[in-house]
Design goal:
The protein is an alpha/beta fold and 984 residues long. It contains 36 helices and 28 strands. Strands 9-10-8-11-12-7-13 form a seven-stranded parallel β-sheet, sandwiched between helices. Strand 11 (250-256), helix 10 (267-275) and strand 12 form a beta-alpha-beta unit. The protein is elongated and about 105 Å long.
């Protein structure tokens, strides 16, 4: 039979009909007596299938709408009723555009594992950045879910963008939620639009207020836009947003810096637990995903696949290889592919700063009272506080003052004079010692000024520098004294410097980051706390970094350095660290800890590519705490670092062995080595390959040789008077400039608001297929004179709103259930038929493009058939009248032949998908959980596996066009259709 879809009301049994509904993207449906074009369709739990459409018929043309088959009659038009029409356009342009548009709007099937779009974006062709997308699509997991754990600077945002683009092309990326730290919201949004043409609406604190003013009261703000990016600090407010999030499903959720989700019971963890079961694809990203605790890491992995790990206390790398990918700068694939594209860093230069007399007096006080050189007890009753005091002093006298004053308030509140008298007296001596200190008494400040002048920072230079400090008081003090010391005066003294720390709002932090990345901005010095050590790109205009104070954590040092040592850095990054030294006997100055940590971080970077696994603690806070405790025990820095890895501390042996699988030799490719050792090929489920390489090959069936060619022809067809109606202008470099019409303006609402406003896109669009031109525009946005980081020219990709808009305009050029007749080089009438098998979730599992004759011969390579038949831009349209009646009469028989062909080969096409899902079901069968929640999860995942299989019904068929023989052509000019399929 031929599949004909209607709504549940027409079947009389909604539950039976739910699994039979198929509404493929690009198909036309009849709802409320109007014709609509399907964009996306997904089943819902209560209201049938949710069908997203755009209007086709005159009354609703270009209007967007959503219908539910449980509430409306949504009729997929019966292919047997297809009306054949003549095409009077030159070179059969309308027909060729229509066929290409259907090809473009049809989602790639679930069985297609190869990358389809990787070569079309504004990226360098780096295969290592494609591997996460390959892993997500490999079928190694039931759903596209993975943890991208590449170390700092390798381009995780680009890897996420590639993965999302591939999901969108497969119809699995309509609704996207990206969750990031607040200070990287705009940076992430910027990368996804400028590189991939994926627009995200930013819902930061200001954005949400604006949206809530625009939408009706009580409406879910997350249904207003399809693709949004939100700060995790905004979204973690579960009391305010949970009820909205629980009522919506996403196609893909991305959570950046996902190590912040680990702490069970935290607001961020609760957010992750809310989102994970309500999305198909889930992408977690973190350069430091492990906190050293096996159970915590297992909980993070469980967000991706609850059944991946049986025992959260004991598991190996192979248990999660289908979910986890991690590389470093020294990994073989990265090192070989990045030759000449990423400048090598040098070691951190330790700049010794001999203490001033005023600072020596403080060193003497600390050595005598707080950290006695002779090993006698400290004046403080809290063992760790003397080191807190020391670290504050090693930062600045301003930080020391703040720490001392805070401690005094704490002790005074206790109201225990006898117990706190000695410590209070010692604290007040420190107050006296720091009372009159200025920048003239700071050896580090003098050295900072000297170093900055030495690298060229000043009023007459464009040189920029990032200066890190752990203490806000240090940052604020430096902001008041540094500009004048560098020679900045008047207005430039204010404009030359920016401060960033966690106390700023998300808008303020994003503004600072954007300004520092603009070459035309006057800022020369960025003073920042460690809020900028995660995720922020500071390398666009800067390759100089100074540690004003050094964190007592290898991980934190590495994260800081990674802000300028990252993919895209054109100049060798240079790091300096100010090391305060003392001549006081027994004084614990920066040579004790900081200088040695700098050396160990550099050693780890060069040998392992990361310092994360050196201590085995995997968290900056844990590293610092452990180090201080070891110092209290009398250990040196090296003894502390090496002691944990050698197993001197109880309980570390098992953990070391376990974590070595994940973080030990991340520069190697253990799967490939294991396969080679065993004499086996690398399985298709690894992150390395999907069995078909990374090129586009024949992944995308195309009638036009390029998207540029398609867009040119589409503009001529839809807007033959585009020069007047759109004020269209085109230059010799391939730049298109035009005034967007009303229906395109509606789509542009999904673009970043800042971008729309700053580039005045509602008035005029500048787009191009010329990647060099787009790259130059992006570069100009960062150069001197630019007031915006958004480029004025955007690259046209298959995902760009302009391309999607024209694709839809082409599709609606044909009326309801119309298929064109095309005179071509064929021996007999050949019907072009689309056949789609779907799963219970409404996603295509098999898509076939066929040519079918009235005699029943079938060729399942429609694109090759069209090329063999001479269908192309040089063909002639003789405008000959052809009687459609006898051709239309044959349509039912043609559809039966097409269905029979697909049913014969269905098992072979479906076998790879079926075998992959059966492996998952076997693994689920072995996964035992003693709790009711575990059993519920097991049933849910088993049901999901069944839903991914092709449903038992016949294929959805659609007649697209008919190729007719040319009566004027000699018999030899028309080749018969091969009855043997081109590819099975």
């Amino acid at each position: 039979m031929t599949a004909v879809q209607t709504s549940p009301e027409q079947h009389g049994d909604a539950s039976d009909a739910a699994g039979q509904e198929q509404f493929p993207a690009g198909a036309q449906v009849l709802v409320r007596d109007e014709v609509w074009l399907v964009r996306n369709a997904v089943p819902t739990a209560d209201d049938g299938t949710r069908v997203e459409v755009v209007g086709v018929s005159d009354f609703v043309r270009d209007q967007e709408a959503v219908f539910f088959t449980g509430l409306d009659t949504v009729e997929l038009i019966d292919p047997r009723d297809t009306r054949l029409i003549a095409d009077d356009s030159p070179t059969y342009r309308r027909s060729r555009l229509f066929l290409e548009a259907v090809l473009r709007r049809t989602a790639l099937p679930q069985s297609e594992r190869r990358l389809a779009l990787a070569d079309s974006f504004l990226l360098d062709p780096l295969p290592y950045q494609r591997r996460p997308a390959e892993l997500a699509l490999s079928g190694a997991n039931l759903r596209p879910r993975l943890l991208i754990a590449d170390v700092v600077g390798l381009g995780k945002t680009l890897e996420i963008g590639l993965t999302l683009a591939e999901l969108i092309r497969r119809g699995r990326g309509e609704r996207i939620l990206v969750v990031t730290p607040q200070h990287v919201l705009e940076q992430f949004q910027h990368e996804l639009w400028t590189r991939f043409a994926i627009p995200l609406v930013r819902l930061d604190s200001v954005g949400i207020e604006r949206i809530q003013r625009e939408i009706p009261a009580g409406r879910n703000p997350f249904t207003y836009f399809k693709r949004v990016i939100v700060s995790i600090d905004t979204l973690k407010n579960t009391d305010q947003y949970r009820h909205h999030l629980e009522q919506i499903r996403w196609d893909a959720v991305v959570i950046d810096e996902s190590h912040n989700l680990i702490n069970r019971g935290s607001l961020r963890n609760q957010l992750a637990q809310t989102l994970a079961p309500r999305t198909d694809a889930l992408i977690l990203a973190s350069a430091t995903p492990h906190n050293g605790d096996a159970r915590s890491f297992a909980e993070l992995i469980a967000l991706l696949d609850p059944a991946a790990i049986r025992d959260p206390e004991n598991y190996r790398a192979e248990d999660i290889e289908h979910l986890f990918i991690r590389r470093t700068k020294v990994s073989t694939e990265v090192r070989e592919q990045m030759k000449g594209q990423w400048a090598d860093r040098g070691p951190s230069q330790a700049v010794h700063c001999p203490a001033t007399p005023a600072e020596e007096r403080i060193f003497e006080e600390l050595a005598a009272v707080w950290l006695p050189r002779d090993g006698s007890p400290s004046v403080s009753s809290v063992p760790l506080f003397p080191y807190t005091l020391l670290k504050s002093f090693l930062s600045s006298h301003a930080a020391l003052k703040a720490t001392v004053n805070a401690r005094i308030k704490t002790l005074e509140k206790k109201n225990e004079p006898r117990a706190t008298a000695a410590e209070l007296a010692a604290l007040r001596r420190l107050v006296e010692l720091t009372a009159d200190l200025t920048e003239a008494d700071s050896a580090k400040f003098a050295a900072l000024v000297e170093q900055l002048k030495g690298i060229g920072v000043g009023p007459s230079s464009d040189t920029r520098v990032v200066v890190f400090s752990e203490r806000v008081q240090t940052l604020e003090w430096l902001a008041t004294v540094l500009p004048a010391a560098l020679g900045f005066r008047g207005r430039t003294a204010k404009d030359c410097l920016r401060v960033m720390h966690g106390g700023l709002s998300d808008e303020q932090q994003m503004r600072v980051v954007e300004e520092f990345g603009l070459a035309g901005a006057p800022v020369r010095v960025l003073l920042t706390g460690d809020v900028a050590s995660e995720g922020v790109n500071l390398h666009r205009q800067c390759h100089q970094l100074v540690h004003y104070d050094v964190p007592w954590s290898l991980i934190r040092i590495e994260q800081r350095n990674g802000r300028i040592d990252r993919y895209g850095q054109a100049r060798p990054p240079q790091f300096r660290a100010l090391i305060l030294t003392s001549g006081t006997e027994g004084a614990k100055d920066d040579t004790l800890v900081s200088e040695r940590l700098l050396e160990r971080e550099d050693q780890a970077h060069r040998s392992l590519g990361t310092a994360e696994a050196v201590t085995g603690l995997y968290r900056a806070e844990a590293e610092e705490k452990s180090l201080i405790q070891d110092l209290l025990r009398g250990r040196t820095v090296d003894e502390s670092l090496d002691g944990r890895r050698s197993g001197e501390d109880a309980g570390t042996d098992a953990m070391d062995d376990f974590l070595a699988d994940f973080f030990g030799a991340v520069g190697d490719e253990p799967q490939a080595e294991a396969a080679e050792a065993g004499g086996q090929s690398v399985p298709e489920t690894t992150g390395g390959a999907t069995g078909a390489g990374t090129g586009t090959g024949s992944v995308l069936p195309r009638l036009f040789d390029s998207t540029a060619h398609f867009l040119d022809e589409a503009l001529r067809e839809v807007y033959p008077d585009a020069r007047d109606r759109l004020d269209l202008d085109r230059d010799e470099q391939g730049l298109l400039s035009f005034r967007p019409p009303a229906d395109l303006l509606h789509r542009l609402k999904a673009l970043p608001m800042d971008y729309l406003r700053e580039q005045r896109l509602r008035e005029r669009l500048l787009v191009t297929f010329n990647r060099r031109l787009a790259q130059q525009s992006l570069q100009r946005a960062r150069e001197a004179g630019s007031t915006s980081s958004w480029p004025e020219i955007s690259l046209l990709t298959d995902l760009h709103p302009v391309v999607e808009w024209l694709t839809d305009k082409v599709l609606v050029r044909l009326g309801r259930q119309e298929a064109p007749m095309i005179t071509a080089e064929v021996a007999e009438p050949t019907y072009l038929v689309q056949g789609v098998y779907s799963n219970a979730l409404g996603r295509p599992t098999v898509v076939k493009w066929m040519g079918v004759t009235r005699s029943g011969a079938v060729d399942d390579d429609m694109v090759s058939l069209l090329r063999r038949s001479g269908v192309g831009p040089t063909m002639a349209n003789k405008l000959r009248h052809r009687d459609p009646a006898p051709l239309a009469a044959a349509i039912p028989a043609v559809l039966e032949a097409a269905e029979a062909f697909m049913e014969r080969h269905r098992d072979a096409w479906d076998r790879p998908l079926r075998e992959s899902i059966e492996r998952h079901k076997l693994r689920l069968g072995d996964w035992e959980q003693p709790t009711l929640a575990g059993e519920h999860t097991k049933r849910r995942l088993t049901d999901l596996a069944d839903d991914l299989l092709t449903t038992g019904q016949g294929p959805m068929l659609r007649v697209l066009a008919v190729l007719l023989p040319d009566p004027d052509a000699p018999p030899a000019a028309s080749a018969p259709l091969s009855a043997t399929p081109a590819a099975l």
